[in-house]
Amino acid sequence: MKHTISMTINGAPVTAEVDSRLLLVHFIRENLDLTGTHIGCDTSNCGACTILLDGKSIKSCTYLAVRADGAEITTIEGLAAEGTNHPLQQAFHDQHGLHCGFCTPGMIMRSVDLLKNNPNPTEEEIRWGISGNLCRCTGYNNIVKSVQQAAKEMQSESESV
Amino acid sequence: MIPANFTYHKASSVKEAIALAETHGDEAKYMSGGHSLLPMMKLRFATPEHIIDISKIEGLSYLKEEGDVLKIGALTTQTEMEHDSNIKEHYPIFSDAIKLTADPSVRNVGTIGGNIAHGDAANDQPALMLAMRATVVAEGTDGQKSIPIDEFFHGFYMTALGPSDVLVEIQVPKATKGSGGAYHKVERKVGDYATAGVAVYVTLDNDGVCSQIGIGLTNVSAVPMRLDRGEELLRGKKITDDLIEQVGAMAGEDCEPTSDLRGSEAYKRAIVNTITKRMIRLALERAQH
């Protein structure tokens, strides 16, 4: 059965016909060609497919596209305003928070939600905060440093406003 | 992995959900967060022909104290409960459990009601609800009914909910001076199901005597399990180190774990023994503050 769904993706309105069983991650990657959102484990363990749905991080491999009707979605492609890196993107670059990069989009989208709810997290809170995102290269240390740098940056930004 | 074909229906009220379930009978399943059901569908362990999405129903997401109970709306997400200031301050048993349940992105979607309605002894909330002697409120074709938690879990993925019943609310005792709870589970890695878990909720009278205690066990039996023998031993007594040792041993004996990838039966019994003792001590400490 087909359903007509409408949502906002990275600020742009999208309307599409989808099957009941289409997963949101396939809709994003295959229907919208936004391939920055990755499929890793496909079982909601690894977090490579993490996106923001109405501002909250979710695993898009375990969410039906039809349920996202009316939602506001942000993927990694929608994070950078006008071509400037988001502080998290810049921090992952500066701190070498990646090796192969496969987990990075999910790691960054998850960290956006983390820092929104907890702008000044401790190292332990960061490690718990990204516990649903697996990285098989870095050993996480530089990822944690990246989130710490971004937290500092974003706090000073919000203070200067 | 893509689930088998099904037809999606969105319910905008509990009544509409019940009507849809009545129309589609045994082939329909309710979905709230979907973080237990959808993975099963992707693996084709479950192939419902109709999915009735209840997650968009307004007014079923709340945490409010009324009289002597805390009312938990069934669609309250794990994250909403985790961030609730009253929960953080007065219901540490929930904070203990939620931190160890899956991971933050899953908790953004997964609901407290779904965690219970799924009827899986591996989920964390059932043990807490047993310990706290919760009441489950369900709505069906003939209106609302209250189901004591001890009558709720019937078997592997089977509960007291009829095919068209919607779990709408869970009620647990309001936190009072003299009561305290604690939960811990051993997991192989962050976000895993429990190798074994234990929830304890204790109420002390003014003399420090245990007037009521609940002990619930996670993932060491086919059905979420209450440690009756241990509760009986402690009720009406001042809880001493010696009694705690005895209850730990009982927990290790009475649980019904099976050997699997998470560990051998003997290992799980040993874990249950140890965590039971620790959680009784922690619950007591919290009850005394």
- Tell me, rounded to a whole number, the average pLDDT of chain A: 96
CATH superfamily of the largest domain in chain A: Beta-grasp domain
Can you give the helix content of chain B as a percent range?
25-40%
Strand-pairing-aware structural class of chain A = alpha+beta
- Pattern of helices and strands of chain B: EHEHEEEHHHHHHEEEEEEEEEHHH
Give the count of helical stretches of chain B: 11
- Main sheet characteristics of chain A: 5 strands, mixed
Give the strand tally of chain A.
5
Q: For the record, what CATH class of the largest domain in chain A applies?
A: Alpha Beta
Q: Could you say how many structural domains of chain B there are in total? A: 3
Question: Ends of chain A: how far apart?
Answer: 49 Å
Which regions of chain B contain 5 or more consecutive residues with pLDDT less than 50?
none
- Helix residue percentage of chain A: 25-40%
Q: Briefly, what is this?
A:
The complex is a heterodimer of chains A (161) and B (289). Chain A is an alpha+beta fold and 161 residues long. Chain A contains 5 helices and 5 strands.
Explain this structure to me?
The complex is a heterodimer of chains A (161) and B (289). Chain A has 161 residues and is of the alpha+beta class. In chain A, 35% of the residues lie in helices and 17% in strands. Chain A contains five helices and five strands. Chain A has a five-stranded mixed β-sheet with strand order 2-1-5-3-4, covered by helices on one side. In chain A, helix 2 packs across helix 5. Chain B has three domains: 47 residues, 2-Layer Sandwich (Uridine Diphospho-n-acetylenolpyruvylglucosamine Reductase, domain 2); 111 residues, Uridine Diphospho-n-acetylenolpyruvylglucosamine Reductase, domain 3, CATH 3.30.465; 109 residues, CO dehydrogenase flavoprotein, C-terminal domain (Enolase-like, domain 1, 2-Layer Sandwich). In chain B, the strands form four sheets. In chain B, strands 4-5-10-6-7 form a five-stranded antiparallel β-sheet. A four-stranded antiparallel β-sheet of chain B has the order 11-12-13-14, with helices on both faces. Chain B has a three-stranded parallel β-sheet with strand order 1-3-2, with helices on one face. The radius of gyration of chain B is 19 Å and the shape is globular. In chain B, 52% of the residues are buried. Chains A and B meet through strand 4 and helix 3 of A and strand 1, helix 2 and helix 6 of B.
